[in-house]
Specification:
Blueprint (H helix, E strand, L loop, with lengths): L30 E3 L4 E3 L6 E3 L11 E2 H6 L13 E4 L6 E4 L20 E2 L8 E2 L6 H13 L6 H9 L3 E35 L5 E30 L6 H6 L9 E2 L9 E3 L5 H24 L3 E30 L2 E8 L5 E3 L5 H26 L1
Parallel strand pairs: 8-13, 9-12
Antiparallel strand pairs: 1-2, 2-3, 4-13, 5-6, 5-7, 6-12, 8-11, 9-10, 9-13, 13-14, 14-15
Helix pairs in contact: 2-3
Length: 381
């Protein structure tokens, strides 16, 4: 090889100014990839691991203290400096810096509004990172689809195209010590044997005996105490709560301290339910447990609760983000949503019924009945 050939110089791959999580190899944006549990370049395949910090950095916040200084405690999420409101469903989507977005992840409406500077809020301090990638979400949806009867063909198209958006939904968790004072009545059952007149199979009037239960009621009052830990309240108003409830339990014990790395490549919604409103929702979520404890404390065979008053103390909270895959589709001018839990891959969704498939089945059943009747008549002849 000639000695006078020019020496090849390394290509300057310095990423553009302001690029978030630039790939050190090619300068492209790194996205969080659940399969490698780290940042990964979609172009050259470079991977950058994210070391888990455990839950050591997650601390409960004193509710009363934050309510007193809520304004001063507000700030923006790193890497999400702009936001826009969806004209379709009203969701406030936090936009990733230097990344354009075209449609709302909750209703698929084009986000035509001009983004504006994000308004400060109580920012999440913990996150449950995605453990299910896009492929896993598609596979979970396909399995769910296979168990549906009379599902329209449009649902299968979603599975084939993988039209899912990865979204981090805002949540609150609340801890509280409750003291509930109640008044009511305790019912004690007793049984007596009573005679009655009946008619036997021969039409004769006969006297029979039966056991009849009655209840004596006695006044009752008292106090029950209970500590509620990590009552989970969704802070988004963009998805139906009943659909979110079907999406399964969240393993909040796996929460990790917030890091912007986990959000890279995913959409994020700002808190639509404030800290105070969230605690009111948490109180409603606690009611069924408190009512069960009151009835157990009253005891007896039956209970009547006339009044109960609960005092809440030692209230703490955590702002956090939970991962969700969302698919939106339209069928006969109606919008349907499919949710895949980004940690457990559990699927929940609204589904339409294919009237054509149902009509075909009804026609086949009628045809089968007619054929059976014809065969019966033929054998009888």
């Amino acid at each position: 090889m000639p000695d006078d050939l020019p020496i090849a110089k390394p290509v300057n791959r310095e990423p553009p100014a302001g690029r978030k999580f630039p790939c050190p190899s090619c300068g492209a944006r790194l996205d969080f990839d659940p399969s490698v549990r780290g940042l990964k370049c979609p172009y050259c395949g470079f991977e950058q691991k994210i070391e888990s910090e455990g839950d050591g950095g997650i601390a409960e916040k004193a509710y009363d203290e934050y309510m007193d200084r809520e304004e001063s405690a507000r700030k923006a999420i790193p890497g999400r400096s702009s936001e826009t409101r969806c004209p379709g469903c009203g969701a406030m989507v936090l936009l990733e810096d230097n990344v354009a977005t075209e449609k709302c992840p909750f209703c698929a409406t084009h986000l035509e509004n001009e983004p504006e500077a994000v308004h400060a809020m109580i920012a999440p301090e913990s996150v449950l990172p995605f453990a299910v990638n896009l492929r896993g979400a598609r596979e979970a949806f396909t399995r769910w689809l296979g168990d549906l009867w009379f599902a329209p063909t449009e649902l299968k198209k979603i599975a084939a195209l993988g039209e899912f958006s990865g979204v981090y939904l805002p949540y609150w968790t609340y801890d509280a010590m409750t003291n509930t004072f109640y008044t009511g009545e305790r019912g004690e059952n007793y049984t007596v044997q009573e005679q009655y007149t009946d008619t036997d199979a021969q039409g004769n009037r006969v006297t029979r005996t039966r056991a009849v239960t009655y209840t004596n009621w006695y006044p009752a009052s008292g106090e029950v105490r209970h500590f509620f830990d990590d009552v989970l309240i969704c802070a988004s108003k963009s998805l139906p709560y009943d659909l979110l409830d079907q999406n399964g339990d969240w393993p909040v014990e796996k929460l990790e301290p917030f890091r912007p790395d986990y959000l890279s490549g995913f959409r994020t919604e700002r808190y639509g339910v404030g800290l105070k409103e969230g605690f009111q929702n948490a109180k409603r979520a606690m009611e069924s447990t408190i009512a069960r404890l009151v009835r157990r404390d009253i005891g007896g065979d039956a209970q009547r609760v006339h009044s109960q008053k609960t005092r809440y103390s030692a209230i703490t909270f955590k702002p956090l983000l939970l991962p969700l895959w969302v698919a939106v589709y339209r069928y006969h001018d109606k919008t349907y949503q499919i949710l895949v839990n980004g940690q457990t891959a559990r699927v929940a969704g609204y589904r339409p019924w294919s009237t054509m498939k149902i009509a075909r089945l009804v026609a086949l059943i009628i045809l089968a009945i007619v054929l059976i009747m014809l065969l019966i008549n033929a054998f009888q002849k």
